[in-house]
Write a structure and sequence with these properties.
This protein has one domain: P-loop containing nucleotide triphosphate hydrolases (Rossmann fold, 3-Layer(aba) Sandwich), CATH 3.40.50. It contains four helices and nine strands; from the N terminus they run βαβαββααβββββ. The protein has a seven-stranded mixed beta sheet with strand order 1-9-6-2-5-4-3. A hairpin with a 2-residue loop joins β7 and β8. α1 packs across α2. The longest helix has 12 residues. Bound molecules: adenosine-5'-triphosphate (ATP) and magnesium ion (MG). Adenosine-5'-triphosphate binds next to α1 and α2.
């Protein structure tokens, strides 16, 4: 399935807004859903996944799964969606092919979990007939993010400083025939 059925672009200005947007999305995801996260190093893929985990109400502790390729976060009985889906968080950065993805047996958990794959593009599409793609992009045209002078003091950006992101969602397959209602809002940044 190569053609997206729809595309929605939102912009956020802080990591907290990325988290909050993902948490809202986590509130409407269902077991069997496959999310494919794309974005350069530090774009916010794990930050987004942490927000999904909050919205799903899964056990905390979502981190960059650098050495462990797959982590399963069970749904919490005291969370916002008791009995809801678990979260399976995959980092496919070191996996070179769909064949290596098959070795980690995601099929076993897909029926009862939302499966989120960082660096999943061109590796996991075969796992489901539907997927939601999420691309996180450092917003372009931000010359002012390199270094600024403030009263003569150089202020270099670090990774932890909030920066704008453009987040592009694309739906593929029957599950995503319609865009989720929460993506129909204008950017949460506007007017804030
Ligand atoms: N608008 C934003 N959205 C998300 N993260 C942001 C934003 N602005 C700044 N950040 C910061 O950028 C960093 C994103 O790190 P994160 O681990 O989520 O990226 P990643 O895409 O998972 O990276 P990797 O490719 O290494 O797995 C965090 O330190 C976060 O605080
Ligand atoms: Mg990450």
């Amino acid at each position: 399935m190569s053609e997206a059925q729809w595309e929605r672009t939102l912009t956020v200005s802080t990591a907290e807004q990325t988290h909050a947007l993902a948490a809202a999305l986590g509130g409407v995801l269902e077991a069997g859903d496959l999310l494919v996260l794309t974005g350069e190093l530090g774009a916010g893929k794990t930050t987004f996944t942490q927000g999904l985990g909050e919205g799903l109400g899964v056990r905390a502790g979502i981190i960059s799964p650098t050495f462990v390729l797959v982590r399963i976060h069970p749904n919490r009985a005291d969370g916002p969606r008791p009995g809801g889906p678990d979260l399976v968080h995959v980092d496919a950065y070191r996996l070179d092919s769909a064949a290596e993805i098959d070795d980690i047996d995601l099929e076993n958990t897909m029926d009862t979990a939302v499966t989120v794959v960082e660096w999943g593009r061109d590796r996991v599409e075969h796992l489901s007939d539907s997927r939601l793609e999420v691309d996180l992009l450092r917003s372009v045209g931000g010359e002012d993010t390199e270094a600024t002078t403030d009263g003569g003091v150089m202020d270099f950006d670090t990774d932890d400083d909030d920066e704008p992101r453009t987040i592009v969602f694309r739906g593929f397959g029957p599950r995503w025939a319609e865009a989720p209602q929460l993506l129909e809002i204008t950017s949460p940044v506007e007017g804030n």
